[in-house]
Protein backbone atom coordinates (compact mmCIF):
# COMPACT_ATOMS: atom_id res chain seq x y z
CA UNK A 1 0.00 0.00 0.00
CA UNK A 2 1.35 3.40 -1.02
CA UNK A 3 1.58 6.32 1.41
CA UNK A 4 0.94 9.39 -0.73
CA UNK A 5 2.47 12.83 -0.22
CA UNK A 6 2.07 16.44 -1.33
CA UNK A 7 4.54 17.85 -3.86
CA UNK A 8 5.62 21.41 -3.05
CA UNK A 9 8.59 23.40 -4.35
CA UNK A 10 10.16 20.31 -5.86
CA UNK A 11 9.90 18.16 -2.73
CA UNK A 12 7.59 15.38 -1.55
CA UNK A 13 6.01 16.55 1.71
CA UNK A 14 4.32 14.24 4.22
CA UNK A 15 1.03 15.19 5.82
CA UNK A 16 1.43 18.23 8.06
CA UNK A 17 -1.69 17.29 10.02
CA UNK A 18 -0.74 13.60 10.36
CA UNK A 19 -4.26 12.77 9.16
CA UNK A 20 -4.74 10.22 6.39
CA UNK A 21 -7.71 8.79 4.51
CA UNK A 22 -7.99 5.37 2.87
CA UNK A 23 -8.00 5.35 -0.92
CA UNK A 24 -10.31 2.45 -1.85
CA UNK A 25 -10.68 0.50 -5.09
CA UNK A 26 -14.34 1.02 -6.18
CA UNK A 27 -14.30 -2.32 -8.01
CA UNK A 28 -13.33 -4.04 -4.74
CA UNK A 29 -14.02 -1.86 -1.73
CA UNK A 30 -12.13 -4.28 0.51
CA UNK A 31 -8.87 -3.24 -1.17
CA UNK A 32 -7.16 -0.14 0.20
CA UNK A 33 -4.84 1.15 -2.51
CA UNK A 34 -3.15 4.00 -0.67
CA UNK A 35 -3.23 6.40 2.26
CA UNK A 36 -4.11 9.98 1.30
CA UNK A 37 -2.60 12.79 3.40
CA UNK A 38 -5.18 15.41 4.36
CA UNK A 39 -3.57 18.78 3.84
CA UNK A 40 -4.66 21.89 5.72
CA UNK A 41 -4.47 25.65 5.28
CA UNK A 42 -0.75 25.69 6.09
CA UNK A 43 -0.11 23.14 3.33
CA UNK A 44 -1.96 25.35 0.86
CA UNK A 45 -0.07 28.46 1.94
CA UNK A 46 3.26 26.70 1.53
CA UNK A 47 2.28 25.64 -1.99
CA UNK A 48 1.04 29.13 -2.91
CA UNK A 49 4.32 30.66 -1.74
CA UNK A 50 6.24 28.16 -3.85
CA UNK A 51 4.14 28.99 -6.91
CA UNK A 52 4.69 32.73 -6.41
CA UNK A 53 8.44 32.29 -6.02
CA UNK A 54 8.61 30.14 -9.17
CA UNK A 55 6.47 32.54 -11.21
CA UNK A 56 9.20 35.18 -11.19
CA UNK A 57 11.45 32.93 -13.26
CA UNK A 58 8.98 30.76 -15.19
CA UNK A 59 7.15 33.69 -16.81
CA UNK A 60 10.45 34.83 -18.33
CA UNK A 61 11.40 31.35 -19.57
CA UNK A 62 11.23 31.58 -23.37
CA UNK A 63 8.28 29.81 -24.98
CA UNK A 64 10.52 27.30 -26.79
CA UNK A 65 12.02 26.29 -23.44
CA UNK A 66 8.59 25.71 -21.92
CA UNK A 67 7.59 23.76 -25.04
CA UNK A 68 10.67 21.54 -24.79
CA UNK A 69 9.81 20.67 -21.19
CA UNK A 70 6.21 19.82 -22.11
CA UNK A 71 7.33 17.55 -24.94
CA UNK A 72 9.51 15.69 -22.42
CA UNK A 73 6.47 15.23 -20.17
CA UNK A 74 4.42 13.96 -23.11
CA UNK A 75 7.11 11.46 -24.07
CA UNK A 76 7.37 10.15 -20.51
CA UNK A 77 3.59 9.86 -20.15
CA UNK A 78 3.52 7.83 -23.36
CA UNK A 79 6.28 5.58 -21.99
CA UNK A 80 4.39 5.07 -18.71
CA UNK A 81 1.04 4.61 -20.50
CA UNK A 82 0.24 1.14 -19.16
CA UNK A 83 1.20 1.93 -15.56
CA UNK A 84 -0.78 5.18 -15.39
CA UNK A 85 -3.85 3.60 -17.01
CA UNK A 86 -3.75 0.75 -14.52
CA UNK A 87 -3.76 3.21 -11.61
CA UNK A 88 -6.69 5.07 -13.22
CA UNK A 89 -8.66 1.81 -13.52
CA UNK A 90 -7.93 0.76 -9.95
CA UNK A 91 -8.48 4.10 -8.25
CA UNK A 92 -11.49 5.64 -10.03
CA UNK A 93 -13.04 2.54 -11.63
CA UNK A 94 -12.62 3.62 -15.24
CA UNK A 95 -12.59 0.53 -17.49
CA UNK A 96 -9.02 -0.17 -18.54
CA UNK A 97 -9.72 0.38 -22.24
CA UNK A 98 -11.05 3.88 -21.55
CA UNK A 99 -8.23 4.51 -19.09
CA UNK A 100 -5.66 3.78 -21.80
CA UNK A 101 -7.51 6.08 -24.19
CA UNK A 102 -7.52 8.84 -21.57
CA UNK A 103 -3.75 8.57 -21.09
CA UNK A 104 -3.31 8.77 -24.87
CA UNK A 105 -5.49 11.88 -24.89
CA UNK A 106 -3.29 13.36 -22.17
CA UNK A 107 -0.25 12.91 -24.40
CA UNK A 108 -2.05 14.71 -27.24
CA UNK A 109 -3.05 17.57 -24.91
CA UNK A 110 0.54 18.05 -23.72
CA UNK A 111 1.89 18.10 -27.26
CA UNK A 112 -0.81 20.49 -28.47
CA UNK A 113 -0.03 23.05 -25.77
CA UNK A 114 3.71 22.59 -26.20
CA UNK A 115 3.19 23.88 -29.73
CA UNK A 116 0.92 26.67 -28.48
CA UNK A 117 3.82 27.90 -26.33
CA UNK A 118 5.73 28.88 -29.48
CA UNK A 119 2.84 30.27 -31.54
CA UNK A 120 2.60 34.03 -32.12
CA UNK A 121 0.34 35.86 -29.67
CA UNK A 122 -0.75 39.46 -29.83
CA UNK A 123 -1.47 41.79 -32.72
CA UNK A 124 -0.35 45.04 -34.30
CA UNK A 125 -3.03 47.77 -34.20
CA UNK A 126 -2.93 50.86 -36.43
CA UNK A 127 -2.56 54.03 -34.36
CA UNK A 128 -4.07 57.47 -34.88
CA UNK A 129 -0.66 58.95 -34.09
CA UNK A 130 1.59 59.25 -37.17
CA UNK A 131 4.67 57.07 -36.90
CA UNK A 132 3.41 55.37 -33.72
CA UNK A 133 3.71 51.62 -33.16
CA UNK A 134 0.78 50.11 -31.27
CA UNK A 135 0.48 46.42 -30.47
CA UNK A 136 -0.75 43.93 -27.89
CA UNK A 137 1.14 41.23 -26.05
CA UNK A 138 -0.17 38.32 -24.03
CA UNK A 139 1.29 37.78 -20.58
CA UNK A 140 0.70 35.07 -17.97
CA UNK A 141 -1.91 35.78 -15.31
CA UNK A 142 0.19 34.55 -12.38
CA UNK A 143 -0.03 31.67 -9.91
CA UNK A 144 -3.22 29.68 -10.54
CA UNK A 145 -5.44 27.42 -8.47
CA UNK A 146 -6.35 24.26 -10.40
CA UNK A 147 -9.15 22.15 -8.85
CA UNK A 148 -9.97 18.93 -10.70
CA UNK A 149 -12.51 16.07 -10.39
CA UNK A 150 -11.90 12.33 -10.11
CA UNK A 151 -13.70 11.11 -13.23
CA UNK A 152 -11.04 12.18 -15.76
CA UNK A 153 -7.97 12.16 -13.49
CA UNK A 154 -5.46 12.49 -16.36
CA UNK A 155 -7.20 14.46 -19.12
CA UNK A 156 -8.86 17.23 -17.10
CA UNK A 157 -5.78 18.11 -15.01
CA UNK A 158 -3.68 18.16 -18.17
CA UNK A 159 -6.08 20.32 -20.16
CA UNK A 160 -5.90 22.87 -17.33
CA UNK A 161 -2.25 22.57 -16.26
CA UNK A 162 -0.81 22.32 -19.80
CA UNK A 163 -2.05 25.70 -21.08
CA UNK A 164 -1.34 27.26 -17.70
CA UNK A 165 2.35 26.43 -17.77
CA UNK A 166 2.69 26.75 -21.57
CA UNK A 167 1.75 30.42 -21.28
CA UNK A 168 4.06 31.07 -18.31
CA UNK A 169 1.81 30.63 -15.26
CA UNK A 170 2.56 28.53 -12.20
CA UNK A 171 0.11 26.14 -10.54
CA UNK A 172 -1.20 24.90 -7.22
CA UNK A 173 -3.15 21.75 -8.08
CA UNK A 174 -5.82 20.30 -5.82
CA UNK A 175 -7.24 17.04 -7.26
CA UNK A 176 -10.31 15.25 -5.92
CA UNK A 177 -9.40 13.02 -2.98
CA UNK A 178 -10.53 9.92 -4.84
CA UNK A 179 -8.00 10.53 -7.64
CA UNK A 180 -5.02 11.34 -5.42
CA UNK A 181 -3.02 8.30 -6.47
CA UNK A 182 -3.28 9.18 -10.17
CA UNK A 183 -2.28 12.77 -9.34
CA UNK A 184 0.85 11.59 -7.55
CA UNK A 185 1.81 9.43 -10.53
CA UNK A 186 1.40 12.40 -12.88
CA UNK A 187 3.52 14.58 -10.59
CA UNK A 188 6.26 11.95 -10.64
CA UNK A 189 6.26 12.18 -14.45
CA UNK A 190 6.45 15.99 -14.34
CA UNK A 191 9.34 15.73 -11.89
CA UNK A 192 11.16 13.13 -13.99
CA UNK A 193 10.88 15.47 -16.98
CA UNK A 194 12.78 18.17 -15.08
CA UNK A 195 9.96 20.28 -13.64
CA UNK A 196 11.45 23.52 -12.29
CA UNK A 197 10.96 23.92 -8.55
CA UNK A 198 7.56 25.37 -7.66
CA UNK A 199 6.10 25.58 -11.17
CA UNK A 200 3.51 22.88 -10.34
CA UNK A 201 2.63 22.11 -6.73
CA UNK A 202 0.31 19.30 -5.64
CA UNK A 203 -1.81 19.55 -2.49
CA UNK A 204 -3.96 16.58 -1.44
CA UNK A 205 -6.96 16.53 0.87
CA UNK A 206 -10.51 17.69 1.40
CA UNK A 207 -12.04 20.15 -1.02
CA UNK A 208 -14.11 21.77 1.72
CA UNK A 209 -10.93 22.65 3.60
CA UNK A 210 -8.02 23.12 1.23
CA UNK A 211 -10.09 24.00 -1.84
CA UNK A 212 -11.62 26.97 -0.05
CA UNK A 213 -8.23 28.00 1.32
CA UNK A 214 -6.75 27.89 -2.17
CA UNK A 215 -9.42 30.13 -3.70
CA UNK A 216 -9.16 32.54 -0.76
CA UNK A 217 -5.37 32.88 -0.90
CA UNK A 218 -4.08 36.33 -1.87
CA UNK A 219 -1.27 34.67 -3.82
CA UNK A 220 -3.66 33.05 -6.32
CA UNK A 221 -4.61 35.19 -9.34
CA UNK A 222 -7.07 32.85 -11.09
CA UNK A 223 -8.94 29.61 -10.44
CA UNK A 224 -10.00 26.91 -12.89
CA UNK A 225 -12.45 24.33 -11.55
CA UNK A 226 -14.36 21.28 -12.75
CA UNK A 227 -16.86 19.69 -10.39
CA UNK A 228 -20.31 20.10 -8.92
CA UNK A 229 -22.56 23.08 -9.51
CA UNK A 230 -22.85 23.92 -5.81
CA UNK A 231 -19.10 24.02 -5.22
CA UNK A 232 -18.53 25.87 -8.48
CA UNK A 233 -20.95 28.66 -7.62
CA UNK A 234 -19.27 29.03 -4.23
CA UNK A 235 -15.93 29.46 -5.99
CA UNK A 236 -17.48 32.05 -8.31
CA UNK A 237 -18.59 34.10 -5.31
CA UNK A 238 -15.18 33.86 -3.63
CA UNK A 239 -13.33 34.75 -6.81
CA UNK A 240 -15.64 37.66 -7.63
CA UNK A 241 -15.12 39.13 -4.17
CA UNK A 242 -11.37 39.03 -4.79
CA UNK A 243 -11.72 40.26 -8.40
CA UNK A 244 -9.74 37.35 -9.84
CA UNK A 245 -10.43 35.28 -12.92
CA UNK A 246 -12.41 32.09 -12.55
CA UNK A 247 -13.36 29.31 -14.93
CA UNK A 248 -16.04 26.77 -14.00
CA UNK A 249 -17.18 23.54 -15.63
CA UNK A 250 -20.09 22.07 -13.68
CA UNK A 251 -23.13 19.90 -14.32
CA UNK A 252 -24.86 18.44 -17.33
CA UNK A 253 -28.15 16.75 -18.19
CA UNK A 254 -27.31 15.95 -21.76
CA UNK A 255 -29.95 14.94 -24.29
CA UNK A 256 -29.89 13.04 -27.57
CA UNK A 257 -32.65 13.59 -30.12
CA UNK A 258 -33.68 10.82 -32.52
CA UNK A 259 -35.72 11.78 -35.60
CA UNK A 260 -37.72 9.30 -37.71
CA UNK A 261 -35.21 9.31 -40.59
CA UNK A 262 -32.26 8.45 -38.32
CA UNK A 263 -30.20 5.28 -38.61
CA UNK A 264 -31.79 3.73 -35.52
CA UNK A 265 -29.10 1.10 -35.00
CA UNK A 266 -26.35 3.71 -35.14
CA UNK A 267 -28.28 6.00 -32.81
CA UNK A 268 -28.95 3.19 -30.32
CA UNK A 269 -25.31 2.08 -30.31
CA UNK A 270 -23.88 5.56 -29.77
CA UNK A 271 -26.51 6.59 -27.22
CA UNK A 272 -26.00 3.38 -25.23
CA UNK A 273 -22.27 4.02 -25.25
CA UNK A 274 -22.64 7.68 -24.28
CA UNK A 275 -25.05 6.86 -21.46
CA UNK A 276 -23.61 3.69 -19.95
CA UNK A 277 -19.86 3.41 -20.47
CA UNK A 278 -17.85 4.24 -17.34
CA UNK A 279 -21.20 3.89 -15.54
CA UNK A 280 -22.35 7.25 -16.89
CA UNK A 281 -19.79 9.13 -14.80
CA UNK A 282 -19.01 11.84 -17.33
CA UNK A 283 -20.28 15.41 -17.34
CA UNK A 284 -21.07 14.90 -21.03
CA UNK A 285 -22.77 11.50 -20.60
CA UNK A 286 -26.16 11.08 -22.28
CA UNK A 287 -28.84 11.01 -19.60
CA UNK A 288 -31.95 11.81 -21.68
CA UNK A 289 -33.04 10.67 -25.12
CA UNK A 290 -35.93 12.34 -26.94
CA UNK A 291 -37.44 10.18 -29.68
CA UNK A 292 -40.12 11.17 -32.16
CA UNK A 293 -43.18 8.99 -31.57
CA UNK A 294 -43.12 7.28 -34.99
CA UNK A 295 -39.97 5.31 -34.16
CA UNK A 296 -39.84 5.21 -30.36
CA UNK A 297 -40.71 1.52 -29.94
CA UNK A 298 -38.25 0.38 -32.60
CA UNK A 299 -35.56 2.61 -31.13
CA UNK A 300 -36.07 1.26 -27.61
CA UNK A 301 -35.77 -2.29 -28.92
CA UNK A 302 -32.41 -1.44 -30.52
CA UNK A 303 -31.31 0.51 -27.45
CA UNK A 304 -32.09 -2.37 -25.10
CA UNK A 305 -30.08 -4.73 -27.29
CA UNK A 306 -27.08 -2.38 -27.32
CA UNK A 307 -27.16 -1.73 -23.56
CA UNK A 308 -27.32 -5.44 -22.78
CA UNK A 309 -24.19 -5.95 -24.90
CA UNK A 310 -22.08 -3.69 -22.64
CA UNK A 311 -20.24 -5.85 -20.05
CA UNK A 312 -20.51 -4.84 -16.39
CA UNK A 313 -17.21 -5.89 -14.81
CA UNK A 314 -14.35 -4.70 -12.58
CA UNK A 315 -12.49 -1.85 -14.22
CA UNK A 316 -9.24 -3.77 -14.58
CA UNK A 317 -11.00 -6.47 -16.65
CA UNK A 318 -10.09 -5.99 -20.32
CA UNK A 319 -13.73 -6.62 -21.32
CA UNK A 320 -15.25 -4.11 -18.90
CA UNK A 321 -17.38 -1.36 -20.43
CA UNK A 322 -19.51 -0.13 -17.54
CA UNK A 323 -17.37 -0.50 -14.40
CA UNK A 324 -18.28 0.54 -10.84
CA UNK A 325 -19.58 3.78 -9.43
CA UNK A 326 -16.96 5.75 -7.52
CA UNK A 327 -18.27 5.24 -3.97
CA UNK A 328 -20.99 3.95 -1.67
CA UNK A 329 -22.53 7.45 -1.62
CA UNK A 330 -22.66 7.47 -5.42
CA UNK A 331 -24.30 4.05 -5.42
CA UNK A 332 -26.96 5.24 -2.97
CA UNK A 333 -27.62 8.34 -5.08
CA UNK A 334 -28.05 6.37 -8.29
CA UNK A 335 -30.31 3.85 -6.53
CA UNK A 336 -32.48 6.71 -5.27
CA UNK A 337 -32.96 8.19 -8.74
CA UNK A 338 -33.64 4.79 -10.30
CA UNK A 339 -36.36 4.25 -7.69
CA UNK A 340 -37.80 7.70 -8.41
CA UNK A 341 -37.85 6.87 -12.11
CA UNK A 342 -39.64 3.60 -11.45
CA UNK A 343 -42.36 5.47 -9.56
CA UNK A 344 -43.01 7.95 -12.35
CA UNK A 345 -42.25 5.83 -15.42
CA UNK A 346 -41.62 2.33 -16.74
CA UNK A 347 -38.29 0.60 -16.14
CA UNK A 348 -37.31 -1.08 -19.41
CA UNK A 349 -33.96 -2.39 -18.21
CA UNK A 350 -31.95 -2.53 -14.98
CA UNK A 351 -32.98 -0.39 -12.05
CA UNK A 352 -31.03 -2.02 -9.23
CA UNK A 353 -27.60 -2.82 -7.87
CA UNK A 354 -25.68 -5.26 -10.07
CA UNK A 355 -24.96 -8.66 -8.58
CA UNK A 356 -22.44 -11.39 -9.26
CA UNK A 357 -19.43 -13.07 -7.71
CA UNK A 358 -17.09 -10.26 -8.76
CA UNK A 359 -19.64 -7.45 -8.65
CA UNK A 360 -20.75 -7.90 -5.04
CA UNK A 361 -17.39 -6.55 -3.85
CA UNK A 362 -17.77 -3.25 -5.72
CA UNK A 363 -20.12 -0.33 -6.26
CA UNK A 364 -21.80 -1.69 -9.39
CA UNK A 365 -25.23 -0.66 -10.68
CA UNK A 366 -27.14 -2.18 -13.57
CA UNK A 367 -27.36 -0.07 -16.74
CA UNK A 368 -30.87 1.34 -16.50
CA UNK A 369 -33.35 2.55 -19.12
CA UNK A 370 -36.64 4.18 -18.07
CA UNK A 371 -39.41 5.34 -20.42
CA UNK A 372 -42.70 7.23 -20.08
CA UNK A 373 -41.16 9.72 -17.66
CA UNK A 374 -42.34 13.33 -17.52
CA UNK A 375 -39.67 15.78 -18.71
CA UNK A 376 -40.20 17.61 -15.42
CA UNK A 377 -39.58 14.56 -13.20
CA UNK A 378 -36.56 14.52 -10.87
CA UNK A 379 -34.90 11.72 -12.79
CA UNK A 380 -35.18 13.82 -15.97
CA UNK A 381 -34.05 17.10 -14.44
CA UNK A 382 -31.27 16.42 -11.92
CA UNK A 383 -27.75 15.25 -12.67
CA UNK A 384 -27.41 11.62 -11.56
CA UNK A 385 -23.85 10.73 -12.63
CA UNK A 386 -24.70 7.10 -13.12
CA UNK A 387 -25.85 4.60 -15.78
CA UNK A 388 -29.46 5.80 -15.89
CA UNK A 389 -31.08 6.91 -19.16
CA UNK A 390 -34.62 8.26 -19.49
CA UNK A 391 -36.52 8.11 -22.78
CA UNK A 392 -39.03 10.83 -23.71
CA UNK A 393 -41.51 10.80 -26.58
CA UNK A 394 -41.78 13.86 -28.85
CA UNK A 395 -44.36 14.86 -31.45
CA UNK A 396 -41.78 16.19 -33.89
CA UNK A 397 -38.59 18.22 -34.25
CA UNK A 398 -39.78 21.39 -32.52
CA UNK A 399 -41.22 19.42 -29.60
CA UNK A 400 -38.01 17.40 -29.31
CA UNK A 401 -35.89 20.56 -29.16
CA UNK A 402 -38.19 22.05 -26.50
CA UNK A 403 -37.90 18.90 -24.37
CA UNK A 404 -34.11 18.84 -24.77
CA UNK A 405 -33.93 22.51 -23.75
CA UNK A 406 -36.09 21.86 -20.67
CA UNK A 407 -33.10 21.78 -18.30
CA UNK A 408 -31.12 24.27 -16.27
CA UNK A 409 -28.01 22.74 -17.85
CA UNK A 410 -26.74 23.18 -21.39
CA UNK A 411 -23.50 21.29 -21.86
CA UNK A 412 -23.80 18.83 -24.76
CA UNK A 413 -26.64 17.72 -27.03
CA UNK A 414 -26.73 15.39 -30.03
CA UNK A 415 -29.26 14.76 -32.78
CA UNK A 416 -29.53 11.75 -35.08
CA UNK A 417 -30.94 12.48 -38.53
CA UNK A 418 -30.16 12.61 -42.26
CA UNK A 419 -32.30 15.73 -42.77
CA UNK A 420 -30.16 18.81 -43.45
CA UNK A 421 -33.13 21.13 -42.90
CA UNK A 422 -33.70 19.62 -39.46
CA UNK A 423 -30.00 20.06 -38.66
CA UNK A 424 -30.07 23.72 -39.73
CA UNK A 425 -33.08 24.31 -37.46
CA UNK A 426 -31.56 22.38 -34.54
CA UNK A 427 -28.20 24.15 -34.38
CA UNK A 428 -29.45 27.72 -33.64
CA UNK A 429 -32.36 26.62 -31.44
CA UNK A 430 -30.69 24.13 -29.11
CA UNK A 431 -29.36 25.56 -25.84
CA UNK A 432 -25.99 23.86 -25.41
CA UNK A 433 -22.34 24.75 -25.68
CA UNK A 434 -21.50 21.63 -27.67
CA UNK A 435 -23.88 20.64 -30.46
CA UNK A 436 -23.38 17.32 -32.20
CA UNK A 437 -25.03 15.48 -35.08
CA UNK A 438 -24.95 11.68 -35.50
CA UNK A 439 -22.48 11.37 -32.62
CA UNK A 440 -22.84 10.68 -28.93
CA UNK A 441 -22.81 13.55 -26.45
CA UNK A 442 -19.47 12.65 -24.86
CA UNK A 443 -16.14 14.23 -25.60
CA UNK A 444 -14.72 16.88 -27.89
CA UNK A 445 -11.37 17.16 -29.64
CA UNK A 446 -8.67 18.57 -27.32
CA UNK A 447 -8.00 21.45 -29.72
CA UNK A 448 -11.68 22.53 -29.77
CA UNK A 449 -13.34 24.78 -27.14
CA UNK A 450 -15.12 22.86 -24.36
CA UNK A 451 -17.94 24.26 -22.25
CA UNK A 452 -21.67 24.74 -21.85
CA UNK A 453 -24.50 27.22 -21.48
CA UNK A 454 -26.81 28.04 -18.58
CA UNK A 455 -25.73 26.35 -15.31
CA UNK A 456 -23.19 24.05 -16.95
CA UNK A 457 -20.30 26.51 -17.20
CA UNK A 458 -19.11 29.98 -16.37
CA UNK A 459 -18.51 32.67 -18.97
CA UNK A 460 -15.34 31.15 -20.45
CA UNK A 461 -14.39 28.04 -22.40
CA UNK A 462 -11.61 25.51 -21.94
CA UNK A 463 -9.21 23.96 -24.45
CA UNK A 464 -8.07 25.04 -27.89
CA UNK A 465 -7.75 28.74 -28.72
CA UNK A 466 -10.14 29.57 -25.86
CA UNK A 467 -7.41 28.62 -23.37
CA UNK A 468 -5.34 31.64 -24.41
CA UNK A 469 -8.11 33.97 -23.27
CA UNK A 470 -8.25 32.55 -19.76
CA UNK A 471 -4.62 31.76 -19.03
CA UNK A 472 -3.19 35.08 -20.27
CA UNK A 473 -3.88 38.78 -19.85
CA UNK A 474 -3.66 41.36 -22.62
CA UNK A 475 -1.23 44.27 -22.42
CA UNK A 476 -1.65 47.11 -24.94
CA UNK A 477 1.58 48.90 -25.89
CA UNK A 478 2.05 52.18 -27.77
CA UNK A 479 5.45 53.54 -28.78
CA UNK A 480 5.48 57.07 -30.15
CA UNK A 481 8.42 58.56 -32.01
CA UNK A 482 10.38 61.43 -30.53
CA UNK A 483 10.73 64.20 -33.09
CA UNK A 484 12.84 67.32 -33.13
TrEMBL record:
It comes from the Bacteria. The active site is at residue 249. Residues 12-477 form the Aldehyde dehydrogenase domain. InterPro entries: Ald_DH/histidinol_DH, Ald_DH_C, Ald_DH_CS_GLU, Ald_DH_N, Aldehyde_DH_dom. Keywords: NAD, Oxidoreductase. Residues 446-465 are annotated as: Disordered. One of its GO terms (biological process) is polyamine catabolic process. One of its GO terms (molecular function) is aldehyde dehydrogenase (NAD+) activity. Belongs to the aldehyde dehydrogenase family. This is Aldehyde Dehydrogenase. It comes from Thermobaculum terrenum (strain ATCC BAA-798 / CCMEE 7001 / YNP1).
